[in-house]
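Notebook p. 47: complex prediction with 1,3-dihydroxyacetonephosphate.
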Amino acid sequence: MASPPIIAGNWKMNLLLESSTKLISDLKKGGISNSRARVVIIPPATLLSSIAYQIKDTGVFLGAQNCHEELAGAFTGEVSADMLASAGCNYVILGHSERRMLFGETNDRIKAKMSSAIKCGLTPIVCVGESLQQRESGEAMDAVRKQLEECLVDEVNKNNCIIAYEPIWAVGTGQTAEPDDIEEIHRHIRNALKAKNPNSDGIPILYGGSVKPENASKILVLPEVGGALVGGASLNPKDFLAIINAASGKSEKKI
Ligand code: 13P
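Predicted complex, structure tokens below:
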């Protein structure tokens, strides 16, 4: 049986206790539990415990936006994979382009974080994607292949990894890649995963970058797209539910 599509909402550095409680309540009213898709909510670290409590018994999963590679120690301001697991997380985003660009995160560190996350029972959602300059100079494929080669642990497989392809020029810009380009690069990622580990069949490859209700169906229907990593639209219950419904092939329920 084909695995269900994954729709993950990356809230980034947004929302407080009250606004997040309202968003989860709206998502529940809108039928988030009845989706065929596997839904993952990825709030900032301050909200993890509260959201874990609010989504228990809903079938919705919890993720974090980053972790440190060490499990404990003198790393002021950091959060370990162990801590995330104990807060109720099943997933952790690693190597998001904002972390790579704004916080100098390197492929080596992302790989170390991936090992740590897997050890703690979390499934890493490893982000890859090219810059506009790399796309325009025809280097997109090589850039993404290099990220995969250097970020992923050798034993990468469908039980310990999800890939998110997020072209940097499409993140938060309202621009999305064309379906043909998405399909082409997702096939390229599939081949790079096979080169890394011949037993890597079935690793979900999500698309991210300005996914909205208006474009979700045509992206999610592509054969190599296993779901979406949604930023801005995941903060709006109506939009996020519409994307989840597009993944489940259902029409919207009024909220
Ligand atoms: P947007 O959907 O806001 O473009 O963000 C995508 C993203 O970065 C998800 O991780």
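Notes: Residues 251-255 have pLDDT under 50 and may be disordered. The CA atoms of residues 204 and 226 lie 5 Å apart.
Next step: compare against the earlier run before touching the bench.
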